[in-house]
From TrEMBL:
General function of this protein: Involved in the biosynthesis of the chorismate, which leads to the biosynthesis of aromatic amino acids. Catalyzes the reversible NADPH linked reduction of 3-dehydroshikimate (DHSA) to yield shikimate (SA).
Lineage, uppermost ranks: Bacteria, Pseudomonadati, Pseudomonadota, Gammaproteobacteria, Cellvibrionales
MF term (GO), any: NADP binding
Organism: Pseudohalioglobus lutimaris
Ligand binding (shikimate): S16, K17, S18, T63, N88, D104, Y219, Q248
Pfam families, per database record: SDH_C, Shikimate_DH, Shikimate_dh_N
InterPro entries linked: Aminoacid_DH-like_N_sf (IPR046346), NAD(P)-bd_dom_sf (IPR036291), SDH_C (IPR041121), Shikimate_DH (IPR011342), Shikimate_DH-bd_N (IPR013708), Shikimate_DH_fam (IPR022893), Shikm_DH/Glu-tRNA_Rdtase (IPR006151)
Domain SDH C-terminal: start-end pairs: 241-270
Record's protein name: Shikimate dehydrogenase (NADP(+))
Amino acid sequence: TVKDKYAVFGNPIKHSKSPIIHAAFAAQCAQAMQYRAVRVDLGGFDRAANKFFADGGKGLNITLPFKEDAFRFAGRLSERASRARAVNTLNLAADGVIEGDNTDGVGLVRDMVANLGWVVRGLRVLIIGAGGAVRGVLEPLLRERPEGILIVNRTASRAEQLAAEFTDLGAISGGGYELIEECQFDLVINASSAGLEGETPEMPSSILTERSCCYDMLYAAEPTPFMRWAAHHAAWAVTDGVGMLVEQAAQSFYIWRGLRPETQSVIASIRGGTQAA
Ligand code: NDP
């Protein structure tokens, strides 16, 4: 059988788990598809994407640092992607238009709500970091109707500007770390990439209550620095971002193939795999 071609574009891309995840989904749903990880040169996104679709490719995932290039590349955008101004999924639609979507936020919300049983409605939410990942998750998070979202970032102006783009969807503000002093949060989401260097942004433990949930978008073999910080300060629940990773992939798979794969077993095997690695 001829297999439909899919890929993930990024740089670096070597450690991407997406090929394993999509191979598991394809096997589970009996789909004839191949999915490769492709390292694209910086500045070479359009050329590589044009070639991929010209050669018969059906869909792409896009990761760092090309999500904004993909946003510009798409011929049509979902509402959440146009809000995010970042695209992580491209799909060749039936009419030949390449559609852009962003499944990061749906993935995060589905992991929190369906897998972990966390209810976002009415919560005081803190997001640490204001990069591409946060851009992608704000619309779906605000649709869950939290009491409010505060974004804090090392570069305060980025958090301020990002929050300002979403104020019509709910109570949201942003700025520097000083804003969290003397505040408490029910849900703390770490979306800073400091953990990649084994660090975590410095935060007072007074922001946590005994009911606080802590979500690190990062995932690694070991508990991340942010997870260790949260556990040390007795957060009620702590998780890494493997569930988000698998759920955003499942949403991309649904866009491409119209089928919803079962995710629990894939989350468990990725988690087992990262721990064994
Ligand atoms: P970006 O590079 O776009 O943003 C990085 C963010 O981290 C910025 O807000 C930056 O602050 C902040 N930051 C970096 N280093 C430090 C530091 N030493 N101290 C404090 N803040 C720091 O990355 P993304 O938004 O794309 O990704 C963020 C994280 O989320 C990554 O760890 C990534 O792996 C993870 N992720 C997980 C996904 C999943 O499915 N689980 C999906 C997407 C991302 P500043 O603006 O000041 O530079």
